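Researcher: Re-running this chain for the archive, since the previous output was lost when a drive failed. Same request as before.
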Amino acid sequence: MALLSVENLTMTFGSLVANNNVSFDVDEGSIVGLLGPNGAGKTTTFNCISGYYPPTSGKIFLGGQDITRAPAYKVARLGAVRTFQVVQPLKELSVLENVLIGAFLKEKSTLRSLEAANQCIDLCHLGPYRDVPAGELPIGMKKRLEIARTLATRPRLLMLDEAMAGLTVTEIKTAVELILKIRESGITLLVVEHIMEAIMPIADKVVVLDGGEKIAEGPPRTIIEDEKVIKAYFGAKFSKRLQQERQDGPAPA
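Model: Regenerated structure tokens:
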């Protein structure tokens, strides 16, 4: 059953077409990767789903409810929350205070909000930094802090925008483990990511954009062999050479 349905999404900025007739579903309980080269329209798609941009045309449904033109705060209250490429925590506030902001979206009790915030902090391995000002954290921890804050809102759909960009190999492994734990808790994930090696093994489905249009959709094992995807990521020359090697076998070393 689809938790999120994007139907014929188009977003234009004057003469620039950032998204052109994009459609895809995100099934409840799944991890869906939204991939594509720089400028493909991935973040614009996120902005439309999360209520930051009203799309030029098309429809967006969350749990069957039309959220196409709902403002960001209403989309968040309905259970779709997102992180951002450039993390912007409230630097002077502690880790706990930052996460509490998310908890207060749906919870009015201070005690229950504290309990929820602390649970999310522990899940994201930030317990030792609970009272540290957010501005003092390194980038990897700031990204985990943003995830913890979104989790504190008790989302149905969590949208991660480049959550692994700029991380070390060890931090990427920790991020992948965290994503799997989040899915195990019953939360559906839509993940924008450039690091294909990280998202491909854990995604149930992958949607690939290029130039604002959807060029491929399906299981990771079929996406990595799709000629349009290879061309978008590695260029026409690489795609042509790969096709030739498939026909003739690899060239001798």
